Amino acid sequence: MSEFSRYHFRVKFHDTDAMGVIHHSKHIKYFEEARVEFLREKEMKWHNRSDKPLIFAVVSLATQYLKPARFDEELQVWTQARLQGARIQFQYAIFSELQKSFIALGTTELIALDDKLIPKRLPKDLVQAFKSIDWNENWPPKL
Amino acid sequence: MSEFSRYHFRVKFHDTDAMGVIHHSKHIKYFEEARVEFLREKEMKWHNRSDKPLIFAVVSLATQYLKPARFDEELQVWTQARLQGARIQFQYAIFSELQKSFIALGTTELIALDDKLIPKRLPKDLVQAFKSIDWNENWPPKL
Amino acid sequence: MSEFSRYHFRVKFHDTDAMGVIHHSKHIKYFEEARVEFLREKEMKWHNRSDKPLIFAVVSLATQYLKPARFDEELQVWTQARLQGARIQFQYAIFSELQKSFIALGTTELIALDDKLIPKRLPKDLVQAFKSIDWNENWPPKL
Amino acid sequence: MSEFSRYHFRVKFHDTDAMGVIHHSKHIKYFEEARVEFLREKEMKWHNRSDKPLIFAVVSLATQYLKPARFDEELQVWTQARLQGARIQFQYAIFSELQKSFIALGTTELIALDDKLIPKRLPKDLVQAFKSIDWNENWPPKL
Known about the structure:
The structure is a homotetramer. By secondary structure, the first copy, chain A, is α+β, with helices and mostly antiparallel strands. In chain A, 17% of the residues lie in helices and 36% in strands.
């Protein structure tokens, strides 16, 4: 399987703050939405598994805010993922179609938990799936 | 037991939107926070009951927005509650200390659920507690 | 012009609460998103007008919560609008594709403001546009 | 001036997600709230300045999530700040009174902007104020 995924959306009015731009906590929500769409696109069976409940919990997060963006602006979250030991690392770059540039970069690390919030091994099908995905060492990709 | 409760707080920056004022969805969160503090103040055992899990679910909601309010403004949510058949009715009035007036009025109706989200009878101690609280027919109270 | 609009989306994980379902404040955000898409679909020039800034402020809101919905569920917000004197009334019905039923109904009233939050007349092109839209007296529409 | 500040609050129900714990985006809001209370406690004139509008914009953010926390849990955000060139660096540690341990650590870097979102020099009174505050190299402090 190739390539990072691209999740398209518009900035919601309720994502803005009194500075007139996206509030910096909302990027974290965008990353989560992009992660879900990444897993869907890669056909990784993650939630509603028939075997056992699996939860992904965020254990670390880092974000760089490069530019503001405003209500109704069309954005894309570009996302890639790889395994790092027991952790799944996701990298994100939020691209503005209006500004033709990235407005934020981010990374999160996640671990797998069962429904009692106890760490569990990642199921083999998911390990395989993550290993089969390309990882771009130079992030974000050139525009 | 007497009187409505008063829940004090300041408008958070992340509650504002690009109009420079509290986003209209945030009042719903303030009502919820005020409800929790009302139940605490009236010493109603609600969550973490030793008998059985009890969840209050909102089944209807109405809000009137009277005035805008801004970042860091000191607000109070005045709250009263009564039983209406199987429903618990809460009434709210949000008062601005700066503006010396109400900025919003609201009402919510809740029902009791068990942890499978099935409606259940309100426990007797809670029925008694709600019946012992005064209800102000004229709402909001005069300033 | 005919018909209500239909805004499609999935429940985000960050929309859920500890009951495992959509938090009741999130429906208010869905209504806002649906409103924006309604105005876009009907080609109503609303924000970024070349003449003068125009803001729509919510002055009242009512919601009935009919059923819970869960993470990743596919929902639609059906939306219609009409003028009521100086107010614009929107009606919403949130439909779950999984449950084949409505999970919530809502209505909001909005007024037009300038960028100093002073009420202003609705521009003529918008008055015309709202008048040309069908209004369904029986809401929600039959499934 | 001495010491980090401690901002006390309880986890709101609307801060939880379907895992039953605080959603990881909410810690970012707690950091912001703690930042505002830090500036208030240190009597730093920040917003509503008589000279000129001043906005603090977050340019980077990092968080480590150590433990989950649940609805109504009493938390404290411990906060310290210092100047790093043109940036203001804040460090946070979220302490749970129930768990007697830290549940998350964080850091943010902010820059000063005017009301057109153009970078501006930090006013002298604020530079002085930040320089007079102790900075704890070992963070979080020992329990």
